């Protein structure tokens, strides 16, 4: 795909983000679009956000489960960029009026104390470089109409990043068994789903190592202080006004979030 089209689609997705609107799937309009093209479009979209005043504060890993990979027809995860405009803290109420068609997923976030640059990064390298882990929610949001996505669409759309919420309870991954620790997700006081760290590429640390190596091959390091969302351990949860979610990780603690308002879609 030529540079002009990459810029066109990146700008289109950025404007959809600003206006809280959706666009038709890119793959329907560009049948030959590759994943490499999609990442270039993602970069254009994120560059527009940075130019408007946001900062890159971390990365997210998506498409980590086999079921989602099978649905999208891929055999490895994808990634997106986290910006300073996406951050919420536990106890905040998320205004759905700032989102389009949000869905929540529960996962583990890694906060780094050291730089990491692949290739050659292992899960143990990730553990050693991690300051702490916290339970978190990622609120994914698609600028693609009706969530009608294939892998090229979600990658171009910054891996469907919306916002994220970090829990307050911190754990040491050298002590906590993040692979076998169970996760329980409750919606409005009722059990919604259960999960375990091993569902994410065998371990959340494996997913983070994969991304460190993928980005390292492109000359992009993880930096100390960055937040890495390791991939969902829960089913996707549609959210509406008044919903409350709690995810609890065994041996670590919980993250709680509320929602108010009405999303654009």
Number of strands: 13
Radius of gyration: 17 Å
**Shape from CA axes?**
globular
If you average the pLDDT, what whole number results? 94
Q: Helical region count?
A: 7
Helix coverage percent: 25-40%
- How would you classify the helix and strand content by structural class? alpha+beta
**Topology order in helix (H) and strand (E) letters:** HHHEHEEEEHEHEEEHEEEE
Major sheet: size, sense and barrel closure? 8 strands, mixed
Through-space gap between termini: 30 Å
Outline the low-pLDDT stretches.
Answer: none
Classify the beta-strand content into a percent band. 25-35%
Give me some keywords for this one:
globular, 13 strands, 265 residues, 27% helix, alpha+beta
Care to describe what's here?
By secondary structure, this protein is an alpha+beta fold. It contains seven helices and 13 strands. The strands form two sheets. Strands 1, 2, 3, 5, 6, 7, 10 and 11 form an eight-stranded mixed β-sheet that branches. The chain is globular and about 50 Å long. The relative contact order is 0.22.
